[in-house]
Task: inverse folding
């Protein structure tokens, strides 16, 4: 069953919670004299913020919101995002892309166990030459792979579909 959309208040609350957790983790490392670890965390958080900032150039609030709220709505997942966006996403694709993402996350979150450490890797590339969304789900055991199919506008290229990993690429013109 799909998770309800978050309100603006919910999103701000989640963002503040994450921000405080990040600060506390940096603070703990500094208190323990783990300067390099604290620096690594700052670099990791900086990279994450830059990746989410790249999504703005899609000019697709639906895709941007889905990716930014995914781990709040589905806490079993850890999201690894990369983005290279040089141009806006053309109209008509955003709902379809979010539908693929939502189906994927729902399929694995509903069948995973408490011991599964689900990893969701998403790579968004929208340039003049390349328009694709790469998705990889790992960290589960013995879940039948999700069946995905092409649509009129989006081609699905399954990279790997096993009981332990699903990776695919969505491409469009």
Result:
């Amino acid at each position: 069953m799909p998770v309800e959309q978050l309100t603006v208040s919910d999103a701000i609350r989640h963002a503040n919670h994450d921000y405080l957790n990040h600060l506390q983790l940096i603070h703990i490392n500094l208190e323990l004299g783990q300067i390099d670890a604290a620096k690594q965390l700052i670099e990791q958080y900086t990279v994450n913020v830059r990746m989410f900032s790249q999504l703005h150039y899609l000019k697709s609030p639906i895709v941007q919101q889905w990716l930014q709220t995914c781990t709040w709505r589905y806490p079993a997942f850890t999201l690894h995002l990369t983005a290279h966006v040089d141009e806006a996403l053309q109209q008509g694709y955003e709902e379809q892309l979010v539908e693929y993402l939502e189906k994927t996350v729902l399929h694995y979150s509903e069948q995973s166990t408490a011991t599964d450490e689900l990893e969701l890797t998403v790579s968004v590339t929208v340039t003049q030459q390349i328009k694709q969304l790469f998705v990889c789900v790992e960290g589960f055991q013995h879940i039948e792979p999700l069946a995905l199919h092409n649509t009129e506008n989006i081609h699905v290229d399954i990279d790997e579909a096993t009981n332990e990993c699903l990776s695919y690429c969505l491409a469009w013109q």
Q: What stands out?
A: The helical segments are 8-31, 35-54, 61-73, 94-111. The chain is about 45% helix and 25% strand. The chain has a mean pLDDT of 90.
